[in-house]
Every structure is written in C-alpha cells, then in structure tokens.
Prior knowledge:
Elements: E1 2-7, H1 16-26, E2 28-32, H2 37-49, E3 53-55, H3 64-67, H4 75-80, E4 84-88, H5 100-117, E5 121-124, H6 129-138, E6 144-147, H7 153-161, E7 165-168, H8 176-184, E8 190-192, H9 198-204, H10 212-223, H11 228-243, H12 254-263
Parallel strand pairs: 1-2, 2-3, 4-5, 5-6, 6-7, 7-8
Helix pairs in contact: 10-11
The site of zinc ion (ZN) has 6 residues, from loops.
Amino acid sequence: MLIDAHSHLDRYENTVQSALxxxxxxxxxxxxxxxxxPSYKRNLKIGEMCELVLPTxxxxxxxxxxxxxxxxxxxxxxxxSPIIGEIGLDYHFVEDTSQYPAQQxxxxxxxxxxxxxxxxxxxxTKGAEKKVLxxxxxxxxxxxxxxxxxxPLDVFHELVARGVYFTIGIEVLRAEHIKTIARELPANQLxxxxxxxxxxxxLTGTPGMPAxxxxxxxALAKLRKTTTEDIMQTVQTNFLRLIQNDPWLSTPxxxxxxxxxxxx
Length: 264
Ligand SMILES: [Zn+2]
C-alpha cells in the first residue's frame, strides 16, 4: 500500500472521480486535509466515496483571519476529526505581518485541542519553521506530520530530534534543498505526500493526480540509494507505527481499521 499523508482531495472539481479511481487502482491510503469548514464538508463527502480516503479538519494559516474570532464554534468539528490538519503558520506566502497574530492564535487553539485529545497533527511551516518547533515543544505535541518541509537545516535537525514525521513530496524531483532533506531524514521518520492537486500545479502548472506519489517514491529510492520496494515498505511501516493504537482511528472509523489490518 502507498501512503499519501498530505493531500487536498476537495480541490479536485470534476476530476474527483478519476482521482479516486487512481487511489483505488494503486491502493494509495490518502489523508485529505481541509483548510476551512467548506473544504472539510467536501472532504467528508469524498471520504464516503472511497475507503482509502481519510478526511481531516483544520484551518490553514491562510484562512486564520476568517476564523480567529469564532474559534470556540469549531470545537465540535475538531473533536469529530480523527487527525487534525492542515494547521500551522506561514510567514512566507503570507507577507502581511498583521495576520501573524491571528495565525498563531488559530494554530495554538488547534494545538491545545490536539494535546488534550491526543491527536496527530498535519502541519504547514513555510517560513515559520522555528516558531512551529517552539510551539510543538510548548504544547508538548507527541505525534506530528510536518508537510513539505523546506526550511533551514538546523531547525530540521531539531524537529528530527523531536521525533516528528516528515512528508516528502514532488519537489524532491526538482529542488536541491529538498533533496538534502530527503537524504538526511532518518528512515523511520519518512512519509510521502503529493499535496494534490495544488502541489504539482504550483510547480509545473498541471494539477497533480494521485499516482504522482510513485514518482516521489522513485526519486526517494534514487536519493537514498535503495529500491522503490524498500521505500514503499518503510513508509508503510512508519505510517502504521504513527497511527498504532490511536483511539480516534478505531471504532468510529471502521473503514480505516480494515485498512490498518491490511497494512499489517
Ligand atoms: Zn496542504
């Protein structure tokens, strides 16, 4: 089984059926992140269409100003979501520094819920890597997935030492800095992602389809001087370890349970 630990299936419009077709054909377990409430509603519907899709709720830093005054209203939805994501900070694409306090308030609200509920989080760190590290420490977050890390290497090594998992995505095919990160990441903290459909679109202008995860795996195999089978197996084992005994991913999520059993 392949693992796409960071994707946004709600953003496929009329191609969602063919995306789900590829997910089924290649058996790609997919975490479909939300960026706000409307995207979560759509992800929940998509999740009902395919048992390999796990919809998760979060408020993306880009949408923080819209939600910052109504955070308590999100509590029930957060509690229903088995994993929390996408959340985080963005000091790179968001240049308007007046939004940073809202980003931090929203992020901390989710971190506090994640801590209290013992949930895995899926995190965006662009340009704010050091601050994210600091907040993960402050909230004593035990299980996190850092998505598409492209920040400084010293912070990367601190995050590695903290035990976070990293999703390596399609930029590993293109950027030297990402290649370095992909090489230096300890094998037991490696996960894969597509950030579909926007990730590839941002890099090449063409929306990504789920099977691009295979290109990521091939690139990782070359960089880490091993086989694609080894990378697939490693990522699968890592993902299984990460979600092992997670109460939020058992009873009410029977479909995931069966997938976890297949992973074993
Ligand atoms: Zn994302």
